[in-house]
């Protein structure tokens, strides 16, 4: 979370360049933002809310900026980044959590240092000040201070002389190089500066970079030794980031579901088979993710169990601590992630890697840490996902997982055939304007609920979880996904007239179990909105979805995401940027 951006070059005004970068990074946090530029002195402007306009910054060739998702300290302009050093000789922006910030603060306070914000970040600023007071130059002071931090942190520092120093240990940082002029960009992701960048470097954990008079140098933080960083070609220059004809990015991205499913069918078959072999040989297979990607990981584990005959275990990133000691050298970990930077998942993967386990990842953002850690790195090639709520990437993650499972089964071509059909089924739904209005009507109706229950089983269980997540995230309505068979064990107590239940039913071998649960709900007076290939007795309201056989779940998720979208729209919520959340969760 939090986006960091920096610009140095003569082509544009730094304030404008940084502002544009922050606008493209604000999916990472949008409670407050700030920009600092150097023009003789440092000038900083900070505001609460989503990235807006700057009014008081002078024209300057060098600047840094930040868009915040607060972890420590209230959402105020004072707590927004960048933060000044006491003597105003440098400013600093930070992504991450300095876990030992309080201890550092206590020591520094006892030495006379004064603090004026509530952030953990300020401890880093003051620590660098202390190092500088010992006559260390800026980059040495940053290096020395950074080594003392615990937690996952990335910082960028700009000094009055125009020098920039950035250091990474956890959260992402790329350095982009413009083509004709000597423009240099620093950013949390490559998409934010892609239109202006010819080549880029991805900083690794434990590396830092300095910019001085047009020259970028990369160093190892521990040793201070210079590193030859490999420049990668930016292939995203022409990737467009606009809503097109759609009212929101979310709607546009849901409409890209057929495209993203097609993309996974185009991946090299040898890569799928390579991973399938590793999975077959592994004593244990763990699928791990957080939030929406957690539901995707669980769906991938489901596919591996059902089609691959592999007893795969699903893990939630933040809840994997009890598995840490169980991960062995021959195990395989499979991680689907939009950003490839999810902190709690990365922590488990890094540990697994140390133990010698094999890592496979499926990521959308190029240059991510997860990709770099992976023995089997797969890319979604789904194009940027701008809405903070993930929709198309969830679809691509589960479609990919289905193909991995089919490869384990030895039936990859069949899987690809089925997925192509799935893509065309989804396409038909999305092109049907009457169908879209029908969902919008249901969304409006359901947006009046305070609570919504979702029922599903087997292939649909993680799909109702994804529906639940989207309704909570986008509509701010309390939703509760229940395994259909588990209903009678607890949530049945809540079933009464006025209660709304959504049921996903497929023509599979657990259909009758889901129908039983629906009848149990109806018997207690609650109403059921059935989403199924045909209308069943027990449905109060009904929405059709085509039967996709093995891949029904991949079709079913689309109307559920659309329903959540329609609910958010009906409630006038900020669809693409729901309150309090951020897209790339790089803090724990
Ligand atoms: N911990 C810092 C703050 O709260 C940075 C937050 C982040 O990276 O999400 O300001």
- Provide the domain count: 3
Biggest sheet, spatial arrangement of strands? 3-2-4-1-10-9-11-15
Secondary-structure arrangement, i.e. CATH architecture of the largest domain: 4-Layer Sandwich
Q: What proportion of the residues form beta strands (DSSP E)? A: 15-25%
Number of helices: 16
Tell how many strands the DSSP assignment holds: 25
List low-pLDDT spans.
none
The end-to-end distance, rounded to whole angstroms, is 10 Å
Q: Compounds present?
A: glutamic acid
CATH topology of the largest domain: Glutamine Phosphoribosylpyrophosphate, subunit 1, domain 1
CATH class of the largest domain: Alpha Beta
Helix content: 25-40%
CATH superfamily of the largest domain: Aminohydrolase, N-terminal nucleophile (Ntn) domain
- Judged by helices, strands and strand pairing, the structural class is alpha/beta
Shape: globular
- Averaging pLDDT over every residue, what do you get? 96
Radius of gyration: 25 Å
Mind summarizing the main beta sheet? 8 strands, antiparallel
């Amino acid at each position: 979370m939090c986006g960091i951006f920096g610009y140095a070059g003569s082509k544009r005004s730094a304030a404008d360049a940084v502002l544009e970068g922050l606008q493209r990074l604000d999916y990472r946090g949008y409670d407050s933002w700030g920009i600092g530029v150097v023009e003789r002195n440092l000038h900083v402007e900070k505001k609460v809310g989503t990235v807006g306009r700057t009014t008081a910054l002078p024209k300057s060739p060098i600047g840094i900026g930040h868009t915040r998702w607060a972890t420590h300290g209230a959402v105020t302009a004072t707590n927004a980044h960048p933060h000044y050093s006491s003597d105003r000789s440098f400013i600093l922006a930070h992504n991450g959590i300095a876990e030992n910030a309080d201890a550092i603060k206590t020591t520094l306070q006892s030495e006379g240092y004064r603090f004026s914000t509530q952030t953990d970040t300020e401890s880093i600023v003051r620590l660098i000040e202390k190092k500088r007071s010992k006559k260390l130059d800026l980059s040495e002071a940053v290096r020395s201070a950074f080594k003392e931090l615990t937690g996952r942190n990335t910082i960028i520092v700009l000094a009055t002389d125009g020098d920039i120093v950035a250091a990474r240990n956890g959260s992402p940082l790329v350095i982009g190089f413009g083509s004709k002029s000597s423009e240099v960009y620093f950013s949390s992701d490559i998409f934010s500066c892609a239109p202006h960048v010819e080549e880029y470097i991805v900083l690794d954990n434990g590396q830092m970079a300095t910019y001085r008079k047009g020259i970028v140098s990369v160093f190892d933080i521990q040793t201070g030794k210079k590193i030859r960083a490999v420049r990668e070609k930016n292939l995203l220059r022409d990737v467009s980031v606009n809503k097109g004809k759609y009212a929101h990015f979310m709607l546009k991205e849901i409409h890209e579901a057929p495209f993203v499913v097609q993309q996974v069918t185009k991946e090299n078959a040898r890569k799928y088979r390579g991973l399938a072999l590793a999975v077959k040989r592994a004593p244990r297979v763990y699928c791990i993710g957080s939030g929406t990607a957690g539901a995707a990981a669980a769906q991938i584990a489901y596919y591996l169990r059902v089609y691959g005959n592999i007893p795969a275990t699903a893990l939630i990133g933040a809840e994997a601590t009890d598995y840490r000691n169980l991960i062995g050298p021959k195990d395989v970990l499979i991680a689907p992630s939009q950003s490839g930077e999810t902190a709690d998942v990365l922590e488990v993967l890094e540990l697994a890697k140390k133990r010698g386990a094999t890592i496979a990842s499926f990521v959308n953002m190029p240059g991510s840490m997860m990709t770099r850690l992976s023995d089997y790195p797969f890319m979604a090639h789904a194009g940027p996902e701008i809405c903070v709520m993930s929709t198309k990437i969830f679809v691509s993650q589960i479609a990919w997982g289905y193909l991995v499972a089919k490869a384990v089964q030895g039936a990859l071509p069949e899987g690809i055939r089925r997925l192509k059909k799935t893509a065309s089924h989804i396409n038909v739904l999305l092109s049907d304007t009457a169908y879209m209005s029908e969902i919008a009507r249901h969304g409006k109706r359901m947006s009046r609920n305070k609570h919504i229950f979702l029922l599903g089983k087997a292939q649909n269980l993680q799909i109702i979880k994804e529906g639940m997540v989207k309704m909570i995230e986008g509509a701010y309505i309390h939703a509760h996904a229940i395994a259909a068979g588990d209903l009678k064990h607890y949530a049945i107590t809540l079933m009464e007239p006025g209660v709304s239940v959504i049921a996903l039913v497929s023509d599979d071998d657990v259909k009758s179990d889901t129908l039983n649960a629906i009848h149990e709900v109806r018997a207690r007076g609650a109403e059921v909105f059935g989403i199924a290939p045909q209308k069943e007795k027990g449905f109060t309201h009904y929405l059709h979805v085509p039967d996709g056989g093995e891949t029904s779940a991949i079709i079913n998720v689309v109307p559920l995401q659309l329903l959540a979208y329609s609910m958010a729209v009906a409630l006038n919520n900020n669809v693409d940027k729901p309150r309090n959340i951020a897209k790339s969760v790089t803090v724990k």
